[in-house]
Amino acid sequence: MWPSSPWPSSPWPSHGGQAEALLAHFGLPADHRLDDFSANLNPLGPPAWVSDWLTKQLTGLERYPAPDYAAARQAIAAHHQLQPEQVLLTNGGAEAIFLAAALHAGKRAAIITPSFGEYARACRAHRLSITEIALPAPHFTLDIDSLLAGLNGIEVLFLCRPNNPTATLIDMSAMETLLDHSAAIGCHVVVDEAFIDMVGEAPQQASMAPLLARYSHLTLLHSMTKFYTLPGLRLGYMLAEAATIKAAETCQPAWSVNHLAAELVAPLLTDDAFARRTQRWLASERPRVAQALTELGLDVVPSQACFFLIRPSAAQEITTDALFEQLLRQGILVRHSHNFAGLNGEWLRVALRDEPANRRLVNVLKKVLHDCLR
Ligand SMILES: Cc1ncc(COP(=O)(O)O)c(C=O)c1O
Protein backbone atom coordinates (compact mmCIF):
# COMPACT_ATOMS: atom_id res chain seq x y z
CA MET A 1 0.00 0.00 0.00
CA TRP A 2 1.32 3.47 -0.87
CA PRO A 3 1.64 5.79 2.06
CA SER A 4 0.01 9.21 2.23
CA SER A 5 2.01 11.81 0.38
CA PRO A 6 3.52 14.13 2.95
CA TRP A 7 2.62 17.76 2.30
CA PRO A 8 4.81 19.95 4.47
CA SER A 9 3.68 23.15 6.05
CA SER A 10 2.76 24.74 2.69
CA PRO A 11 -0.97 24.45 2.06
CA TRP A 12 -2.61 22.62 -0.82
CA PRO A 13 -3.61 25.07 -3.57
CA SER A 14 -6.85 26.81 -2.67
CA HIS A 15 -8.65 26.25 -5.99
CA GLY A 16 -8.53 23.90 -8.98
CA GLY A 17 -5.80 24.33 -11.58
CA GLN A 18 -2.66 25.83 -9.98
CA ALA A 19 -0.65 23.02 -11.54
CA GLU A 20 2.74 24.73 -11.18
CA ALA A 21 2.74 24.54 -7.39
CA LEU A 22 1.70 20.90 -7.41
CA LEU A 23 4.29 19.87 -10.01
CA ALA A 24 7.02 21.63 -8.06
CA HIS A 25 5.88 20.02 -4.83
CA PHE A 26 5.99 16.50 -6.26
CA GLY A 27 9.34 17.14 -7.96
CA LEU A 28 7.87 16.97 -11.47
CA PRO A 29 9.15 19.20 -14.28
CA ALA A 30 7.18 22.36 -15.03
CA ASP A 31 6.46 21.06 -18.55
CA HIS A 32 5.05 17.72 -17.30
CA ARG A 33 2.00 17.13 -19.55
CA LEU A 34 -1.23 17.37 -17.62
CA ASP A 35 -4.85 16.73 -18.51
CA ASP A 36 -6.82 19.06 -16.26
CA PHE A 37 -9.79 17.41 -14.52
CA SER A 38 -9.67 19.87 -11.61
CA ALA A 39 -11.83 22.67 -13.06
CA ASN A 40 -15.57 22.12 -13.58
CA LEU A 41 -16.08 23.72 -16.98
CA ASN A 42 -18.25 22.70 -19.90
CA PRO A 43 -15.84 20.92 -22.31
CA LEU A 44 -18.01 21.93 -25.31
CA GLY A 45 -17.53 25.63 -24.82
CA PRO A 46 -17.09 28.42 -25.34
CA PRO A 47 -19.58 28.49 -28.24
CA ALA A 48 -17.63 28.66 -31.53
CA TRP A 49 -18.89 32.14 -32.47
CA VAL A 50 -17.71 33.82 -29.24
CA SER A 51 -14.15 34.54 -30.30
CA ASP A 52 -15.07 36.43 -33.52
CA TRP A 53 -17.92 38.13 -31.76
CA LEU A 54 -15.63 39.43 -29.00
CA THR A 55 -13.14 40.71 -31.57
CA LYS A 56 -15.87 42.79 -33.20
CA GLN A 57 -16.80 44.31 -29.84
CA LEU A 58 -13.29 45.55 -29.05
CA THR A 59 -13.95 49.16 -30.10
CA GLY A 60 -16.51 49.33 -27.29
CA LEU A 61 -13.61 49.16 -24.83
CA GLU A 62 -12.99 52.84 -25.53
CA ARG A 63 -16.15 53.74 -23.58
CA TYR A 64 -17.41 53.02 -20.07
CA PRO A 65 -20.17 50.41 -20.00
CA ALA A 66 -23.67 51.79 -19.31
CA PRO A 67 -23.77 51.49 -15.51
CA ASP A 68 -27.21 49.85 -15.35
CA TYR A 69 -26.39 47.14 -17.93
CA ALA A 70 -29.99 47.38 -19.12
CA ALA A 71 -29.72 45.04 -22.13
CA ALA A 72 -28.00 42.29 -20.15
CA ARG A 73 -30.47 42.58 -17.27
CA GLN A 74 -33.37 42.44 -19.67
CA ALA A 75 -31.97 39.29 -21.32
CA ILE A 76 -31.42 37.53 -17.98
CA ALA A 77 -34.87 38.57 -16.74
CA ALA A 78 -36.50 37.20 -19.90
CA HIS A 79 -34.49 33.95 -19.55
CA HIS A 80 -35.88 33.41 -16.04
CA GLN A 81 -39.27 35.06 -16.60
CA LEU A 82 -38.53 37.75 -14.03
CA GLN A 83 -38.45 41.56 -14.08
CA PRO A 84 -35.16 43.38 -14.90
CA GLU A 85 -35.37 44.98 -11.41
CA GLN A 86 -34.88 41.48 -9.98
CA VAL A 87 -31.51 41.05 -11.73
CA LEU A 88 -28.04 42.34 -10.86
CA LEU A 89 -25.20 41.64 -13.29
CA THR A 90 -21.97 40.72 -11.47
CA ASN A 91 -18.29 40.16 -12.13
CA GLY A 92 -18.66 36.37 -12.01
CA GLY A 93 -20.64 34.35 -9.52
CA ALA A 94 -17.77 35.13 -7.13
CA GLU A 95 -18.76 38.80 -6.91
CA ALA A 96 -22.41 37.81 -6.40
CA ILE A 97 -21.34 35.73 -3.37
CA PHE A 98 -19.49 38.68 -1.83
CA LEU A 99 -22.44 41.02 -2.49
CA ALA A 100 -24.82 38.54 -0.83
CA ALA A 101 -22.56 38.49 2.23
CA ALA A 102 -22.29 42.30 2.20
CA LEU A 103 -26.09 42.51 2.45
CA HIS A 104 -25.94 40.62 5.75
CA ALA A 105 -22.73 42.12 7.16
CA GLY A 106 -22.16 41.38 10.83
CA LYS A 107 -25.00 38.84 11.10
CA ARG A 108 -25.08 35.17 12.05
CA ALA A 109 -24.64 32.93 8.98
CA ALA A 110 -24.87 29.19 8.45
CA ILE A 111 -23.18 27.42 5.58
CA ILE A 112 -24.05 23.90 4.46
CA THR A 113 -20.74 22.02 4.11
CA PRO A 114 -18.77 20.65 2.40
CA SER A 115 -19.19 23.41 -0.15
CA PHE A 116 -17.51 26.10 -2.19
CA GLY A 117 -15.03 27.94 0.04
CA GLU A 118 -15.96 31.43 -1.13
CA TYR A 119 -19.10 31.55 1.09
CA ALA A 120 -16.94 31.35 4.20
CA ARG A 121 -14.40 33.80 2.77
CA ALA A 122 -17.12 36.31 1.87
CA CYS A 123 -18.74 35.92 5.31
CA ARG A 124 -15.43 36.53 7.05
CA ALA A 125 -14.76 39.57 4.84
CA HIS A 126 -18.10 41.05 5.91
CA ARG A 127 -17.80 40.01 9.57
CA LEU A 128 -20.56 37.42 9.62
CA SER A 129 -20.19 34.67 12.22
CA ILE A 130 -20.27 31.20 10.64
CA THR A 131 -21.99 28.02 11.76
CA GLU A 132 -21.31 24.99 9.59
CA ILE A 133 -24.11 22.52 8.97
CA ALA A 134 -22.50 19.30 7.72
CA LEU A 135 -23.86 16.96 5.06
CA PRO A 136 -22.82 13.47 6.20
CA ALA A 137 -20.42 11.31 4.13
CA PRO A 138 -20.54 9.13 2.15
CA HIS A 139 -23.76 10.23 0.40
CA PHE A 140 -23.86 13.90 1.44
CA THR A 141 -27.66 13.97 1.31
CA LEU A 142 -29.50 16.59 3.31
CA ASP A 143 -31.63 15.63 6.28
CA ILE A 144 -34.13 18.47 6.16
CA ASP A 145 -35.23 18.06 9.80
CA SER A 146 -31.70 18.43 11.16
CA LEU A 147 -31.12 21.40 8.87
CA LEU A 148 -34.22 23.16 10.19
CA ALA A 149 -33.19 22.42 13.77
CA GLY A 150 -29.74 23.89 13.04
CA LEU A 151 -31.20 27.20 11.87
CA ASN A 152 -32.16 28.46 15.33
CA GLY A 153 -30.65 31.92 15.74
CA ILE A 154 -29.30 31.96 12.17
CA GLU A 155 -30.04 35.08 10.09
CA VAL A 156 -28.76 33.96 6.70
CA LEU A 157 -28.12 30.52 5.23
CA PHE A 158 -25.75 29.88 2.30
CA LEU A 159 -26.09 26.73 0.24
CA CYS A 160 -25.07 25.54 -3.19
CA ARG A 161 -27.48 23.70 -5.51
CA PRO A 162 -26.21 21.50 -7.10
CA ASN A 163 -23.45 21.50 -4.57
CA ASN A 164 -19.78 21.94 -5.34
CA PRO A 165 -17.91 19.63 -4.55
CA THR A 166 -20.42 16.83 -3.82
CA ALA A 167 -22.50 17.28 -7.03
CA THR A 168 -25.63 16.53 -4.98
CA LEU A 169 -28.89 18.43 -5.47
CA ILE A 170 -31.33 19.20 -2.67
CA ASP A 171 -34.74 18.39 -4.12
CA MET A 172 -37.31 21.09 -4.73
CA SER A 173 -39.78 19.91 -2.07
CA ALA A 174 -37.05 20.03 0.61
CA MET A 175 -36.17 23.53 -0.61
CA GLU A 176 -39.80 24.63 -0.25
CA THR A 177 -39.93 23.19 3.28
CA LEU A 178 -36.72 25.08 4.04
CA LEU A 179 -38.09 28.31 2.56
CA ASP A 180 -41.35 28.09 4.54
CA HIS A 181 -39.47 27.46 7.78
CA SER A 182 -36.81 30.09 7.18
CA ALA A 183 -39.46 32.70 6.31
CA ALA A 184 -41.19 31.95 9.61
CA ILE A 185 -37.99 32.42 11.67
CA GLY A 186 -36.67 35.43 9.69
CA CYS A 187 -33.67 33.69 8.14
CA HIS A 188 -32.61 34.73 4.62
CA VAL A 189 -31.65 31.96 2.20
CA VAL A 190 -28.91 32.42 -0.40
CA VAL A 191 -28.73 29.64 -2.99
CA ASP A 192 -25.77 29.45 -5.36
CA GLU A 193 -27.04 28.03 -8.66
CA ALA A 194 -23.66 28.25 -10.42
CA PHE A 195 -24.06 24.70 -11.77
CA ILE A 196 -27.84 24.59 -12.17
CA ASP A 197 -27.66 24.41 -15.98
CA MET A 198 -25.67 21.19 -15.61
CA VAL A 199 -28.40 19.37 -13.72
CA GLY A 200 -30.03 17.73 -16.70
CA GLU A 201 -32.46 17.90 -19.54
CA ALA A 202 -34.64 20.77 -18.30
CA PRO A 203 -32.31 23.14 -16.44
CA GLN A 204 -34.86 25.94 -16.23
CA GLN A 205 -37.12 23.65 -14.23
CA ALA A 206 -34.29 22.90 -11.82
CA SER A 207 -33.66 26.57 -11.00
CA MET A 208 -35.48 28.07 -8.06
CA ALA A 209 -36.08 31.33 -9.94
CA PRO A 210 -39.88 30.75 -10.12
CA LEU A 211 -39.95 30.61 -6.30
CA LEU A 212 -38.78 34.24 -6.08
CA ALA A 213 -42.42 35.23 -6.65
CA ARG A 214 -43.38 33.52 -3.38
CA TYR A 215 -40.33 34.01 -1.17
CA SER A 216 -38.94 37.52 -0.70
CA HIS A 217 -36.16 36.23 1.60
CA LEU A 218 -34.63 34.12 -1.17
CA THR A 219 -31.56 35.24 -3.18
CA LEU A 220 -30.15 33.23 -6.08
CA LEU A 221 -26.59 33.49 -7.39
CA HIS A 222 -25.58 32.46 -10.89
CA SER A 223 -22.37 32.04 -12.81
CA MET A 224 -22.13 32.13 -16.59
CA THR A 225 -18.50 31.03 -16.61
CA LYS A 226 -19.06 27.28 -16.10
CA PHE A 227 -21.73 26.54 -18.67
CA TYR A 228 -20.19 28.75 -21.37
CA THR A 229 -16.53 28.00 -20.45
CA LEU A 230 -15.58 31.66 -20.01
CA PRO A 231 -13.96 31.82 -16.55
CA GLY A 232 -11.45 34.42 -17.74
CA LEU A 233 -14.20 36.79 -18.84
CA ARG A 234 -15.94 36.94 -15.42
CA LEU A 235 -19.71 36.93 -15.72
CA GLY A 236 -22.48 36.13 -13.26
CA TYR A 237 -25.64 37.54 -11.73
CA MET A 238 -27.86 37.76 -8.69
CA LEU A 239 -31.64 37.22 -8.72
CA ALA A 240 -33.83 38.43 -5.86
CA GLU A 241 -36.74 40.71 -5.09
CA ALA A 242 -36.21 44.27 -6.39
CA ALA A 243 -35.42 45.74 -2.95
CA THR A 244 -32.63 43.21 -2.35
CA ILE A 245 -31.17 43.91 -5.79
CA LYS A 246 -31.24 47.65 -5.12
CA ALA A 247 -29.43 47.15 -1.80
CA ALA A 248 -26.82 44.87 -3.42
CA GLU A 249 -26.25 47.45 -6.14
CA THR A 250 -25.22 50.00 -3.53
CA CYS A 251 -22.45 47.61 -2.39
CA GLN A 252 -21.13 47.01 -5.91
CA PRO A 253 -18.34 49.11 -7.44
CA ALA A 254 -19.45 51.08 -10.52
CA TRP A 255 -18.72 49.37 -13.88
CA SER A 256 -17.92 46.13 -12.10
CA VAL A 257 -18.69 44.11 -15.22
CA ASN A 258 -16.61 44.86 -18.30
CA HIS A 259 -18.13 45.82 -21.64
CA LEU A 260 -17.30 42.54 -23.41
CA ALA A 261 -18.88 40.38 -20.71
CA ALA A 262 -22.00 42.55 -20.44
CA GLU A 263 -22.59 42.63 -24.20
CA LEU A 264 -22.15 38.87 -24.45
CA VAL A 265 -25.02 38.02 -22.07
CA ALA A 266 -27.92 38.25 -24.54
CA PRO A 267 -26.28 36.29 -27.38
CA LEU A 268 -25.14 33.57 -24.96
CA LEU A 269 -28.60 33.13 -23.49
CA THR A 270 -30.19 32.83 -26.92
CA ASP A 271 -27.77 30.17 -28.17
CA ASP A 272 -30.22 27.29 -27.83
CA ALA A 273 -28.17 24.98 -30.04
CA PHE A 274 -25.20 25.20 -27.63
CA ALA A 275 -27.47 24.54 -24.65
CA ARG A 276 -29.02 21.51 -26.37
CA ARG A 277 -25.60 20.12 -27.29
CA THR A 278 -24.50 20.49 -23.67
CA GLN A 279 -27.58 18.67 -22.41
CA ARG A 280 -26.95 15.81 -24.87
CA TRP A 281 -23.34 15.54 -23.65
CA LEU A 282 -24.45 15.43 -20.00
CA ALA A 283 -27.15 12.86 -20.71
CA SER A 284 -24.69 10.49 -22.40
CA GLU A 285 -21.38 11.06 -20.58
CA ARG A 286 -22.49 11.44 -16.96
CA PRO A 287 -24.12 8.00 -16.54
CA ARG A 288 -21.40 6.32 -18.60
CA VAL A 289 -18.57 7.79 -16.49
CA ALA A 290 -20.45 7.18 -13.22
CA GLN A 291 -20.70 3.53 -14.11
CA ALA A 292 -17.06 3.28 -15.23
CA LEU A 293 -15.81 4.86 -11.97
CA THR A 294 -18.05 2.61 -9.88
CA GLU A 295 -16.80 -0.48 -11.75
CA LEU A 296 -13.25 0.49 -10.73
CA GLY A 297 -14.36 -0.10 -7.13
CA LEU A 298 -14.19 3.57 -6.14
CA ASP A 299 -16.73 5.24 -3.87
CA VAL A 300 -18.63 7.59 -6.19
CA VAL A 301 -21.17 10.14 -4.98
CA PRO A 302 -24.13 10.17 -7.43
CA SER A 303 -23.71 13.34 -9.49
CA GLN A 304 -26.24 15.91 -10.67
CA ALA A 305 -23.55 18.23 -11.98
CA CYS A 306 -20.57 18.16 -14.34
CA PHE A 307 -18.15 16.58 -11.86
CA PHE A 308 -17.84 13.63 -9.51
CA LEU A 309 -16.66 13.28 -5.94
CA ILE A 310 -14.73 10.01 -5.60
CA ARG A 311 -12.42 8.23 -3.18
CA PRO A 312 -10.74 4.86 -2.92
CA SER A 313 -13.07 2.42 -1.19
CA ALA A 314 -12.06 0.83 2.11
CA ALA A 315 -11.05 -2.33 0.24
CA GLN A 316 -8.59 -0.50 -2.02
CA GLU A 317 -4.92 -0.44 -1.09
CA ILE A 318 -4.27 3.20 -1.65
CA THR A 319 -4.85 6.43 0.23
CA THR A 320 -6.54 9.40 -1.40
CA ASP A 321 -3.35 11.50 -1.29
CA ALA A 322 -1.36 8.72 -2.92
CA LEU A 323 -4.02 8.34 -5.62
CA PHE A 324 -3.83 12.10 -6.25
CA GLU A 325 -0.04 11.91 -6.57
CA GLN A 326 -0.01 8.87 -8.85
CA LEU A 327 -2.62 10.46 -11.13
CA LEU A 328 -0.48 13.60 -11.31
CA ARG A 329 2.58 11.53 -12.22
CA GLN A 330 0.51 9.85 -14.93
CA GLY A 331 -0.52 13.25 -16.33
CA ILE A 332 -3.95 13.67 -14.73
CA LEU A 333 -4.70 16.67 -12.51
CA VAL A 334 -7.74 16.30 -10.23
CA ARG A 335 -8.99 18.50 -7.40
CA HIS A 336 -7.86 17.60 -3.88
CA SER A 337 -10.32 18.18 -1.03
CA HIS A 338 -7.99 19.35 1.75
CA ASN A 339 -9.61 22.76 1.93
CA PHE A 340 -13.26 21.70 1.68
CA ALA A 341 -14.69 21.75 5.20
CA GLY A 342 -15.73 18.24 6.18
CA LEU A 343 -13.84 16.37 3.46
CA ASN A 344 -10.38 16.50 5.08
CA GLY A 345 -8.59 15.47 1.92
CA GLU A 346 -10.36 12.08 1.86
CA TRP A 347 -12.10 12.68 -1.46
CA LEU A 348 -11.10 13.84 -4.93
CA ARG A 349 -13.25 15.85 -7.31
CA VAL A 350 -12.97 14.99 -10.99
CA ALA A 351 -14.54 17.00 -13.78
CA LEU A 352 -16.68 15.42 -16.45
CA ARG A 353 -15.06 16.16 -19.82
CA ASP A 354 -15.58 15.02 -23.37
CA GLU A 355 -15.67 11.30 -24.11
CA PRO A 356 -12.02 10.79 -25.16
CA ALA A 357 -10.75 12.67 -22.09
CA ASN A 358 -13.10 10.76 -19.78
CA ARG A 359 -11.87 7.48 -21.23
CA ARG A 360 -8.26 8.56 -20.60
CA LEU A 361 -9.14 9.35 -16.99
CA VAL A 362 -10.78 5.99 -16.41
CA ASN A 363 -7.88 4.12 -18.04
CA VAL A 364 -5.28 5.91 -15.93
CA LEU A 365 -7.31 5.35 -12.77
CA LYS A 366 -7.54 1.66 -13.65
CA LYS A 367 -3.76 1.44 -14.11
CA VAL A 368 -2.98 3.27 -10.88
CA LEU A 369 -5.43 1.18 -8.85
CA HIS A 370 -4.03 -1.99 -10.43
CA ASP A 371 -0.38 -1.00 -9.83
CA CYS A 372 -0.97 -0.36 -6.15
CA LEU A 373 -1.84 -4.06 -5.69
CA ARG A 374 1.65 -5.09 -6.79
C1 LIG B 1 -20.26 26.86 -6.58
C2 LIG B 1 -19.56 27.99 -7.25
N1 LIG B 1 -20.12 29.21 -7.23
C3 LIG B 1 -19.52 30.25 -7.82
C4 LIG B 1 -18.30 30.10 -8.43
C5 LIG B 1 -17.66 31.32 -9.04
O1 LIG B 1 -17.82 31.28 -10.41
P1 LIG B 1 -17.42 32.52 -11.30
O2 LIG B 1 -16.33 32.06 -12.19
O3 LIG B 1 -18.68 32.84 -12.05
O4 LIG B 1 -17.02 33.62 -10.40
C6 LIG B 1 -17.67 28.87 -8.46
C7 LIG B 1 -16.35 28.70 -9.10
O5 LIG B 1 -15.72 27.69 -9.05
C8 LIG B 1 -18.31 27.76 -7.85
O6 LIG B 1 -17.76 26.55 -7.84
TrEMBL record:
<dbReference type="GO" id="GO:0009236">
    <property type="term" value="P:cobalamin biosynthetic process"/>
</dbReference>
<dbReference type="InterPro" id="IPR015421">
    <property type="entry name" value="PyrdxlP-dep_Trfase_major"/>
</dbReference>
<comment type="pathway">
    <text>Cofactor biosynthesis; adenosylcobalamin biosynthesis.</text>
</comment>
<dbReference type="GO" id="GO:0030170">
    <property type="term" value="F:pyridoxal phosphate binding"/>
</dbReference>
<dbReference type="InterPro" id="IPR004839">
    <property type="entry name" value="Aminotransferase_I/II_large"/>
</dbReference>
<dbReference type="InterPro" id="IPR015422">
    <property type="entry name" value="PyrdxlP-dep_Trfase_small"/>
</dbReference>
<feature type="domain" description="Aminotransferase class I/classII large">
    <location>
        <begin position="47"/>
        <end position="364"/>
    </location>
</feature>
<comment type="function">
    <text>Decarboxylates L-threonine-O-3-phosphate to yield (R)-1-amino-2-propanol O-2-phosphate, the precursor for the linkage between the nucleotide loop and the corrin ring in cobalamin.</text>
</comment>
<dbReference type="InterPro" id="IPR005860">
    <property type="entry name" value="CobD"/>
</dbReference>
<protein>
    <recommendedName>
        <fullName>threonine-phosphate decarboxylase</fullName>
        <ecNumber>4.1.1.81</ecNumber>
    </recommendedName>
</protein>
<keyword id="KW-0456">Lyase</keyword>
<dbReference type="Pfam" id="PF00155">
    <property type="entry name" value="Aminotran_1_2"/>
</dbReference>
<dbReference type="GO" id="GO:0048472">
    <property type="term" value="F:threonine-phosphate decarboxylase activity"/>
</dbReference>
<keyword id="KW-0169">Cobalamin biosynthesis</keyword>
<dbReference type="InterPro" id="IPR015424">
    <property type="entry name" value="PyrdxlP-dep_Trfase"/>
</dbReference>
<keyword id="KW-0663">Pyridoxal phosphate</keyword>
